[in-house]
Amino acid sequence: MRVTDVEVIPISHRLPEGRGLGDARGFGRDRATTLIRVETDDGETGWGEAFAPGSVVAPVVDEFFRDAVVGMDPFDVRRLAEDSYTDPYHFGGSVFVQSALSGIDVALWDLVGKATGKPVHRLLGGRERETLTAYASTMYFTEEDRPIAEPIEEAVEEGFAAAKIKIGTGVDSDVERVRAAREVLGDDARLMVDINGNYRPRQAIRTIKAIEEFDVTWVEEPVPPENLSGYREVKSRVDVPIAAGEAHYGRFEFKRLVDDRTVDVVQPNLGRCGGLTEANRIADMATTENVAVRPHIWNSAVGLAAAVQFAASVSDYPHTRNVPDPMMVEFDRSENPLRDEILTTPFDPTGGEVSVPQGPGLGVDVDEDAVERYRADR
Hints:
The protein is α/β, with parallel strands linked by helices. The chain has 2 domains: about 5-120 and about 370-375, Enolase-like, N-terminal domain (Enolase-like, domain 1), CATH 3.30.390; about 120-355, TIM Barrel (Alpha-Beta Barrel). The chain has 13 helices and 15 strands. The model has no long low-confidence stretch (mean pLDDT about 95). Pfam families: MR_MLE_C (PF13378), MR_MLE_N (PF02746).
């Protein structure tokens, strides 16, 4: 089996006027990402996602990856990540090279799974897992004027017992939002908060101390991702777990987070971190140092499928069944047809669980007619 073609497919969807949503940094109406479709000489197709604009991914694939990938055996997939750091030299750690690598890498793993008849999580060494705990990513800042607790109420009605909400616009607002979420979720549910890097260290410390009484499972990106000294300052001053990783790329950046004990939870995004190969190495590093791993997901259904397969492969170390700390996957509750419409059988988080596909590769079937509807380069 040899690769014969790599196709870059940008897809996008625009929310209606007045329906923009976002985080503490601002609103947006556009959802966009890039699918990677890899074909082989035996007629098989593998799918991956590069969580970056297609207008950037396409030239990066052409410049740095196409010649190496066309003609390769998909079973050599691990080599691709290694080569990305040495050829192109000095470019391998950049976000766009890692994003393009991610999409190709996941597509190659999908092909390997289809060739062996195994789901990716088993190929990565994970034990058999049929379900994962889903947490609702919700309570965004929106252009619409609606009660702040309404999205959490909807999540609870769907059966979620864990949720992550957006904060980061000031202590008073942060406390109001966290209190409202906790009251709706109840005392036993897991509640995470996401600041999206909108604070300086002292601001983050003040907010985290103010919301600590609400039993927060983790605080995500309290300061900008590049502010490692800020992360260390925050972590040394608070007693709530700190999470980060969606804006970090490749195992060497994650190694700094882990080695310095900068965070308690690493969150690789499978469309940006270097794909399944790098995510697997990141998970090994993190669990070796007793740092938790929980993938970040704000992607299309293909990136979600990759994240679910990866999450199902991650070790529970050091926990046993006597410590209830289930592997959780993020499930965005905003409107996103790129997640809900491009698979023949979409993921369903109803009841607060996501089934781990047991079919070969990513275990999902892409609806190519739906992909064509959302193509952004037509």
